Fold:
Amino acid sequence: MRPLQLIALPGLPMVQAGDDLAALILATGITPRPDDVLVLAQKIVSKAEGREVRLLDVTPGPRAEELARETGKDARIVELILQESVRVVRARPNLIITQHRLGHTMANAGIDQSNVMQDGDERALLLPLDPDASAAALSARLGCPIVISDSFGRAWRRGTVGVAIGCAGLPALVDLRGKPDLFGRELHVTLTGFADEIAAAAGLLMGQAAEGMPAVLLRGLRWSAPACPATELVRPAQEDLFR
Amino acid sequence: MRPLQLIALPGLPMVQAGDDLAALILATGITPRPDDVLVLAQKIVSKAEGREVRLLDVTPGPRAEELARETGKDARIVELILQESVRVVRARPNLIITQHRLGHTMANAGIDQSNVMQDGDERALLLPLDPDASAAALSARLGCPIVISDSFGRAWRRGTVGVAIGCAGLPALVDLRGKPDLFGRELHVTLTGFADEIAAAAGLLMGQAAEGMPAVLLRGLRWSAPACPATELVRPAQEDLFR
Structure:
């Protein structure tokens, strides 16, 4: 069995709004092969798509002001969180867990203030408008499957891990139900979060601090399931026991 | 930056109770280097440790009988789940989520009936008694860091992903808090589930069906945080918003 290789793309410059991300990636000198998978941190996709918001331009509504008092968070950030979400799941000091409009249940609607350039004014970075569509567009340009990853906390486990918020050209979810196990018994629960495992693997190289590597190539990964988007990873409301 | 390689160990035989797992691994011909990380599926560690239970030997108590009626599950399995757990978090038809005695909140206390040999009688496989200790013992024998992985479902995401239930010789959790981000701002939430990301990465090669590969070597992974066990990944009760 061939090894699976993960390669952090060197030399990717700081991404700015309006940048042609596919061109920046090709300029690193590493050209993805059609059977590679390229994982891109949400941050650089959002930046290229101009999803940065100046906090000066945000006016918190009454609901944001109230939630800001409850959590001790900046009311303008809370306003952005509410705008990006369909409902608040939990709120505690310094933590707001919502269901994002994309379906993901996550902290602070994925809005990040770290690593966002501030020239006098503060900025926040929102998730891409449609990460599956962003992944599809990048996949078409780069000629390989794409995963757009973010770091999520978990309900019962400490520490964040990489998850897929967008993907194209590969199955977000692999359904092994019905395949026999080693003794011919049918496997019961065998739906695997394939794109999430890819994002977590890339997270091992991405890091989050000064030496961050926002693009990681996987070479040698194999699968046989049909492609499906990252929205398939969202557990439907009727299956959600922790709303 | 050197690539990270993941290599599934070929030719590992079916593991039986009492087997010397370290010896079986060395017999594959792949000798781990001191800076490799070896990920082992919980299943083979549990088997070697004799954690298989014959269902014939299990007598369900009244609480197990009641929960079995509620969920439609085998009362003997439910009895084992209760014995292995400190509390039931949610119960629904065909699903019991408990907090395992090891601290993990998970489905069915990690008890698996698939891939467990049945010679006339049915068997279930429990988690190792102390997976961090199992990892430490294997690490001492094999001379490299060890992660013992299992596949967990998630509260709000479909599909299982690999997580670490035991580890030795590496940090289960990496705390980047206080390290400056690209613009010198202090990062806020930067505790990463390092061992969970390792387990998820290995999950890409392990699969779960007939062609399952229960041992995966990572070569080229770097870290600088001190080692800590997988129990550190369990969110303490006072931080748990989804009990």
